[in-house]
Amino acid sequence: MLHREHEELQETMEPPIPIAPARMRKKPGSTEKLKQEVNRAFAMPVPAFSDLGKSANDLINKDFYHTSQATLDVKLKAPNGTNVAVKGKQGFDGVTSGSIEGKHTLKPQGVTITQNWTTASLLDTKVELADVVAPGAKVDLQNLWNPSKPNSAAQKLNLAWKNPNAHLRAFVNYGAASGNVDATVDAVAGHEGFLVGGEAAYDVGKGAVTRYGLGLAYQTPAYNASVNAIQNLNVIMASYYQKVNSSVEVGAKAGYDVQASKAAGLELASKYKLDPLSFAKAKINDRGIAALAYSTKLNAGTTIGLGLSLDTQKLNEAGHKIGTSLTFEG
């Protein structure tokens, strides 16, 4: 009887699911990896026209500290949420300049107010409205005024709107001294990582288009490339950026002057992350000017940067530059 019950129990049990050996299991192929990469590209926001090639431009231009003898940045946050930034720098000509900026955001209303005062007596006031007019829309009202110069005031109206497939902007400038109005519009459309955009500037007083340009780009989280035709399509700029791994980034930028039929510059740059708190950068251009930079975070609120610029064709001559940067955050 027990034998018969055992046989009936075996008949009611479902057969086991065969498990393939580890060597037979399917690994993600190149097609699946490509799909994952494309999906990540879909999730990337469409940049503004001026930001086509931004990754390469930032790698080449930012965090090189040789442009000034010394730079000091102090960033503080008040208890009411206001961000205060004090900046100062001394150039190689001995001239010292600085600015102080206060920025406060009213999050429920989507309003940000920024005021900046420089040692050149320029007062810059900006009011930003984000997602107030419509979802994805941003409106900036800006007033520039120098009390030491009569009729120096200027007003700017900046409009922007973006969604997952497009980024549109318009800038309207009015100068009180000249009474002139000029406007610039640009647009970028994106699909599956491919980007195409253009810009145009119009001078109301002259009644003419003063500038226009076009741009093409392709972006993914790991790399991007762009080609821009600027200055009325007379200068072509191409850039490439790649994040090789979590520690290494490389980039390049090249230009060509169509009217002069000659190259308009070439720059190569790289960045190496030494550890979570430090990185080193290097770049060189077609004129043989090389730059090195090192940045490290000393503690939670202090960062120091060191920079060096060398003319590799004139190593025995003066003209090399050394700069430092110190940033405090609190």
TrEMBL record:
Gene Ontology molecular function, alphabetical: porin activity; voltage-gated monoatomic anion channel activity
GO cellular component, one term: mitochondrial outer membrane
Gene3D superfamilies the UniProt entry points to: Porin (2.40.160.10)
One Pfam family in the UniProt entry: Porin_3
Chain positions covered by the region annotation Disordered: 1-28
Superkingdom of the source species: Eukaryota
Keywords: Ion transport, Membrane, Porin, Transmembrane, Transmembrane beta strand, Transport
Similarity comment: Belongs to the eukaryotic mitochondrial porin family.
Protein name, per record: Mitochondrial outer membrane protein porin
Native organism taxonomy: Eukaryota, Fungi, Dikarya, Ascomycota, Pezizomycotina
